[in-house]
Amino acid sequence: MVDPRIHIINERLKNVRSIIAVSSGKGGVGKSLIASTLALILAKRGYNVGLFDLDFTSPSTHIILGIKNAQPKEEHGIFPAKVYGLKYMSIIYYSGEHATPLRGTDFSNALTELLSTTIWNNLDFLILDMPPGIGDATLDLIRLIKNIRFLIVTTPSQLAFETVKKLTSLLKEMKIPIIGVIENMKIHESNFVKKHVQEMGITFLGDVQSYVEIENFLGNAKELLGSPFAKKIEKICGKLNF
Question: 135: burial class by Cβ within 10 Å (0-12, 13-18, 19+)?
Fold first, then answer.
């Protein structure tokens, strides 16, 4: 039997022009920071933007942006909170500070419920902050959301890039569009990631230097948007095929 919520999900998202899943092969590569910063940059440019934190393992966009009191509203569905020019929704509104150890059917059911009850209305961009890795979330979102595209984040680490290779291989096999790869936390000059990304036939969008001082900007969206990190992400945005 087909879950009727799947049809509802497509109805909820039919007025969203572009859905971008910011993903990574493993955690700790700055995926959530890039997703948050990208959303802020697009909103600053005048686009209608939504940011959806779907990282069930460790949601953190609310910490990055300093979101404390904003809450979604419920009326025949869930309307995202409005913060810093964004429509914002996160699993944190349901889990609080507790872990969400969901697996298999329970995870899929929770994700389907979130997607089917959240009302975004008209958006130019919906940025999805994905859980790391190739797991239920990635496979379910590919199954549930039409026209999803992936923006992949890695670090110069060969270990991190090995998991990226697996993720990109899966997406290409399933014919899911990949916008490109961003190399984050770069310390030394090296073309390792760029070379291998291009050999896979994927767009290398650029690298972002490791900014030790980035911690000073967390929790303040305005300062984050003015940081050297955001300036680099904004430069990379010029290469994105929206």
Answer: middle
Across the 242 residues of the chain, what is the mean pLDDT of every consecutive 10-residue run?
86 96 90 97 96 89 92 92 96 70 72 93 96 82 92 91 91 94 91 94 94 90 94 86 61
Alpha-carbon distance of 199 to 85, in angstroms, equals: 38
**Residue 148 · residue 176 · CB < 8 Å:** yes
> What's at 142, amino acid-wise?
I
Element counts in the chain: helices (H) and strands (E): 10, 10
Query: Is domain 4-237 classified as CATH 3.40.50.300?
Result: yes
- Among 208, 119, 117, 199, CA closest to 156: 208
pTM over 0.85: yes
Q: How far apart are CA 167 and CA 22, in angstroms?
A: 12
